[in-house]
Amino acid sequence: MKLVKTRQELADIVTQWHRAGETIGVVPTMGSLHAGHLALVKALDGKATRRIVTIFVNPIQFNNPDDFHLYPRGLEADAALLEETGGVDILYAPDETQIYAPGFSTRVVVSGLDAMLCGGDRPGHFDGVATIVTKLFMQTRADIAAFGEKDFQQLCIVRRLVQDLDLPVSILPVPTVREADQLALSSRNRRLTPVQRARAAHLPASLHTCIAELKAGKNSETCLKTCWQDLEEAGFTVHYLELRSSKNLQATQPSDPSARLFVAASLGDVRLIDNMPLC
Ligand SMILES: Nc1ncnc2c1ncn2[C@@H]1O[C@H](COP(=O)(O)OP(=O)(O)OP(=O)(O)O)[C@@H](O)[C@H]1O
Ligand SMILES: CC(C)(CO)[C@@H](O)C(=O)[O-]
Ligand code: BAL
Known about the structure:
Elements: E1 2-4, H1 7-19, E2 24-29, H2 35-43, E3 50-55, H3 65-70, H4 75-85, E4 90-92, H5 96-99, H6 117-121, H7 125-140, E5 144-148, H8 152-164, E6 170-174, H9 194-200, H10 202-215, H11 220-233, E7 237-245, E8 259-267, E9 270-277
Parallel strand pairs: 1-4, 2-3, 2-5, 3-4, 5-6
Antiparallel strand pairs: 7-8, 8-9
Beta-alanine (BAL) is lined by residues 30, 61, 151, 154.
């Protein structure tokens, strides 16, 4: 695996790959890699002949400066994990100068999908995500890109932007990888204290309970209210808990086969998200 830090070096390599008829797969990340990220790399097996993992903690997608400064970072450990796992040709870890030149003022806005759920309590977040993802697609010239279903709204927004801008990349969704207690793996989990980490298991457990009740035909407003209260009793501050369609993220009913339960909730200043389908 080669560590590449400049967009010029990356451009030289991907140009050669394209000339040689290689298919390029990319996994965009913000680092502090875990088994969820490795599952995205693995999902490219048989779909790309060359694989790039990008690591860039993108300042413009953070609405909260503390969240940006406290975001876990560790390039050496990330590089070692990828090297040990194998199958990655390039780790692209640019600094800010390679991404946002002085005077940078363009934003990619996927309107509609960006205002709800995480877009509601992280204003501007998805403009930052759509902008960096578009830039990473251009810089890596990827044919295929893997994204996790843990960040389901992000996945929907990336699909929309690829379709709307005719970008020549296909999007590969990858199911959420979970810990033994069902907590979704996330880089931010590292910021939880041991007590918070133990409590965090309430998040997937409450979603499972809520889904079982919805499927049993109980009133959906009551189920969501009870689930919200359960989470608050477990120490969470709940930002949203909503039933939405996986297809278009619009509000929906439990009888909709595409219905999915979405949650964002914080323990202290660590904000966690999760989502699960009803079917
Ligand atoms: N548990 C997981 N299972 C599958 N994919 C995941 C998981 N966690 C993250 N991903 C995916 O990895 C990619 C990079 O995400 P990112 O680097 O932000 O990691 P993260 O663990 O989601 O961190 P955080 O949510 O704390 O920012 C995204 O496509 C994301 O959906
Ligand atoms: C897609 C992404 C790498 C863009 O910064 C980020 O939002 C993430 O890690 O999910
Ligand atoms: N995993 C999504 C990136 C973020 O929370 O900013």
